[in-house]
Amino acid sequence: MERKAIPFVITKHLATIRNRIGMTLELNIVEWSGYAGKLDLRQWRETEEGRKIPCRGFTLTDGELARLITAAQFHLAGKE
Predict the structure, then answer these.
(1) Residue 64: in which H helix or E strand, if any?
(2) Which DSSP letter does residue 24 get?
(3) Contacts of 3 (CB under 8 A, 6+ apart)
(4) What is the pLDDT of residue 75?
(5) Beta-bridge partners for 15
(6) From CA 17, how far away is CA 11, in angstroms rounded?
(7) What pLDDT, in 10s, does the model give residues 3-57?
């Protein structure tokens, strides 16, 4: 079964976390299906034409991002 493409717009590129041949892991602000932009951490595959195809990833609200940052800081400080 072929998946229907979900429309998206990358409104702001924040960082490329990993770059491998033909695949990147990026942190962006993305508008999905016309909804307001959210923070998005996702792998992207680039076609030969230079078009980005979204792969696995997830979106976060600002509140979710704040909790993730707090958890990551505790982890990195060894205070889990």
Answers:
(1) helix 62-76
(2) E
(3) none
(4) 94
(5) 27
(6) 18
(7) 788 999 999 999 999 999 889 999 999 999 999 999 999 999 999 898 999 999 9
Q: Which two tokens stand for residue 13?
A: 């590129």
Closest CA to 65 of 9, 11, 27: 27
For position 4, what pLDDT does the model report? 81
Q: What share of the chain is helix, strand, coil (3-state, %, to 5)?
A: 20, 50, 30
Domains of the chain as residue ranges with CATH = 8-76 (2.30.31.70)
Strands 8-20 and 52-60: unpaired
For the chain, the residue count is 80
- Distance in angstroms (rounded) separating the CA atoms of residues 51 and 37: 20
Q: How many angstroms from the chain centroid is the CA of residue 5? A: 17
Backbone angles phi, psi at 20, to 5 degrees: -120, 165
Beta bridge partners of 32: 8
